[in-house]
Write a structure and sequence with these properties.
By secondary structure, the chain is mainly α. It has one domain (7-391): Glycosyltransferase. The chain has 13 helices and seven strands. The protein has helices at 7-31, 59-71, 74-87, 101-116, 119-133, 163-173, 177-193, 229-246, 249-266, 288-302, 307-327, 357-370, 385-391; strands at 36-40, 43-46, 136-137, 142-143, 154-156, 203-206, 213-217. The strands form three sheets. It has a three-stranded antiparallel beta sheet with strand order 5-6-7, with helices on one face. A two-stranded antiparallel sheet has the order 1-2. Strand 1 (36-40) and strand 2 (43-46) form a beta hairpin. Helix 2 (59-71) packs antiparallel against helix 3 (74-87) and helix 2 (59-71) runs parallel beside helix 12. The chain is globular. One of its GO terms (molecular function) is hydrolase activity. Belongs to the glycosyl hydrolase 88 family.
Length: 392
Amino acid sequence: MHYQLNEEAEILLQETWQRVQSKLAITQKRIGSSLPYISKNHKYIDMGSNKLNWWTNGFWPGILWQMYAATKKSAYLKTARCIEEKLEITFKNPSTLDHDVGFIWLNAAVTDYHLTGNVVAKKRALTAADILAKRYNPIGKYLLAWNGIEKKGQVIVDCFMNLPLLYWASAQTGDSKFEKIATAHAYTATKALLRADGSVNHIAVFDPQTGQFEQNLGGQGYSSDSSWARGQAWAIYGLVLAYKNVKDVQFLNQAKLVANYFIANVSTTDDVSLIDFRAPSTPVYYDTTATAIAICGLLELVRYLPLRQQALYKNAAFKMFKALTQRYCDFSLKDDELLTCGSAKYHRESDREVPIIYGDAFYLEALLRFLNLDLKIYSQEDETLEELAIKH
């Protein structure tokens, strides 16, 4: 989809793309097949040595696949495949994996198969889909978040983004159980997590025996009644994806409501999100990753709206992208990170206002969406490999 931006915007996008290409050509070699999470002293810390099952481990291969598709440089493919082989080891102990196998394997194996037709990647992705489907509670009609006895019955807003793995699995296998699980979870999560004003809760707790809703928890935001910005961003993007797959307009309308809420809030902080929109006025903590995710969600939303409704979301998305580019990007070839000032959790200093790999991943996706070069990892089109090759 072409977003028809003005000349100044097009120049910014092209200049940024050149800088990103120069940087990632270097960092691809330096980071290699390690599994980055947060950056310390401008170098990403590898999670592969002690947390191979960590939920962010798919984002670096996702970046590599995006770059391979856009540039055709085989080094990106080779490195992504090395990571995929490494991640397959986690299948030997599936109990250590959780709902975020979607994030990991959509970025890794699903994208590999979609782009190259690699049947080994397809097998890996279907294994991941089976693991995710087994987390389904048929009484409460939800996918269980996280592991541990104390967390039984928890549903989180992030999981909207994992559902495309199940829809993909049904499309590949012809087995409708995957899509039925995904759709049931989408309805349950929407009812339990969304508020009337467009804000969202992070966590909903259900009784796993009866399926009854019990309470909402604060999660990674400031408190249980606050408004965690990344949760808002997950909801925008995830609800649009639910609409794409279910075709129920309630999901599209809810996505617009959450998007309107997000846009209104970031307009008061120079188009970059705080960690929590309802946190106390001081101290001020930002989360650029929420902004990057929201941009991608807004650009996905625009694809399903009539022309007269598109401008609000398209223009807001570009204002956010421009703010990130001009104030929070590190284009230095000496540094690993691309997007700075990301925050995983309000009340945890160790990964608050630091570079985080998923910030890079969604910033790159946003850039490539504006340039019509992205792979749409979470909303893949039914294109042939030949059509993808022509497009990219």
